[in-house]
Design goal:
Elements lengths: L13 H11 L8 H26 L10 E4 L1 H28 L4 H24 L4 E4 L16 E5 H11 L3 H21 L1 H16 L5 H16 L13 H5 L2 H32 L3 H27 L4 H24 L12 H5 L1 H12 L1
Helix pairs in contact: 1-3, 1-4, 2-6, 2-10, 3-4, 3-7, 4-8, 5-6, 6-7, 6-10, 7-10, 8-11, 10-12, 12-14
Amino acid sequence: MTSFGGGGTDLVDWNLAVSTAARMTRPGPEVSRDEARAAVAELRRHAEAAQLHVNGFTGLDNGAADTPVLVVDRPGWIRANVAGFRELLSPVMVRMRERRSAVPGGAALTAVGSKVTGVEVGMLMSFLSSRVLGQYETFAPPTAGLPARPGGGRLLLVAPNIVQVERELAVKPHDFRLWVCLHEETHRTQFTAVPWLRDHMEGEIQGFLKESDVDPGTLVERFRQAAQSVTGRAPESGADSGRGLVDLVQTPRQREILDRLTAVMSLLEGHADYVMDGVGPAIVPSVAEIREKFTRRRAAGAGRLDRALRKMLGMDAKLRQYQEGERFVRTVVEQAGMTGFNKVWTSPNTLPTKEEITDPEKWVARVRPAAG
């Protein structure tokens, strides 16, 4: 098993989080060895083919030759995401650990608390590991058995979840797998074709975390409550039911950063949906059926997952991001064409604001004349 370091000296025992998640995670749908091999091989072929389709539709050169495509099982997804989580949270965890070490008995409290939180985080990751179909993991560095492009970045396709959903929806496996790959390849293209995007988002997230100035125990407790809410181990009513990490750590500057992050996440998710639906009809014969069934499933199953994301990250529900972001992209392309829309990738200054996501004409009026 990959070691993530830290152990009891961190506020989250990441190794315990991984082992807890791996122990609790269900293996996925029953498939024969031949079926499993065939699914993995097909997903790899579709991921490669999707690069050309996404590039042709968006006009973006994905430059993704050095970005690994990993077809993983649920434990593999957990290991990869815990590595990314730990990387992103490292600066704030260091600050909080230093503060707690200065308190009498703080080291002992940290050691005990890190294990409790590690278990809770592991439970959260176990739950999510059965829900995610694919993911462009932007920030995680290479780890043992999980390569990444220089500086971080890899595309994950979670084979058992894809097979499970295609069976639940009763859709054609070949079509559904390609459809999923189109969405995830769009995310990979966003970050590989736009070199500044990763550093910009990491800077925003780190800026948000650096602004936090709360008691370490309080922040860890909120993280634990967020994990409990998504795993169904916490009540959904009461004084604390609507409170999360961001409710405690937000400052005026954090609110500004959060608005920008919400806008860019809406853009990225909406763009992926728009591309997937734009490319789909030409290469996925049953795309209309897939979209209809998947949209119903997404809406019906979004509640608990979205609540957890809101509690932990303070962002709007992911379902709303898909809807508002897709509407923004579609409106801008209709008014300015794909070339005009692609000016969104010019610099951080041309990214839409949270207000512009819901009012695309404002973005067109602001960016199009200045961009030429």
